[in-house]
Design goal:
Shape: globular
CATH class of the largest domain: Mainly Alpha
Strand content: under 5%
Structural class: mainly alpha
Oligomer: single chain
Low-confidence stretches: none
Mean pLDDT: 86
Distance between the termini: 37 Å
Number of domains: 2
CATH architecture of the largest domain: Up-down Bundle
Order of helices and strands: HHHHHHHHHH
Largest sheet: none
Amino acid sequence: AIGGYFYQYFGPFVSYLSVSIFAIIGLLLATQIPQFFPKLSKTNTSTITEVINGFKYLKTNKIVRIIWIHAVVLALCSGPFRMLIPVYAKDVFSSNPGDVGTLMAAAGIGGLISSFIIAGLGPDDRRGLILIIIGLLTGVGLLMISAIPIYTIGFIAMIIMGLTETGRWSLGQALMMDNADDEYRARVVSLLMLSWGLMPLSMVPMGWAFGYFGPEITTLFTSIVTIIFALSSVIWGKELLKK
């Protein structure tokens, strides 16, 4: 929200200069973190080989594979919308930069709430079922913001989107690490982060659809796909219900 109002009242130069200054401050503070050197591996393998080994491990560990597919597909469905929020807010809500910042702040509020909730979950709290529900709520958030073009509803929907995105990443990583062998934990988490690199696969067509069909129709279609996928995971990912 602060960034949006900075952009509105002080312009892009001051806004991005402020971001750069805070980034430098963060970098300087990070240099104060003590160094922890990892144990040296006895075998020398290339990065590409390690990535291939990670995918091979996904093939052998069904529950980890299910969690990975669930996370990647939902990221491809909802991630591009987060990137296109400024376009959506301008075209649908006729928002100014401050209003866009407020919408992004709503996602941050949802993420903060989700962090506290996920941190309090234990192994006996049906975390797999919660992960499926999070996927369903992602679709509900997209459906709300596309079907009801009211800024207040959009604010509530963004809280839901922030809650589900943070919950999906936090809980997905926790479940993958819990169900992966020790030597493969870093690999499976890195494969989970690969979904960010796959984002252009859906970002490009969604950006085109925003311009051709309009933001509301595109987001409505995406919400339906997301809800159908989340509901279907009860069938093809039924092992999650036991975790």
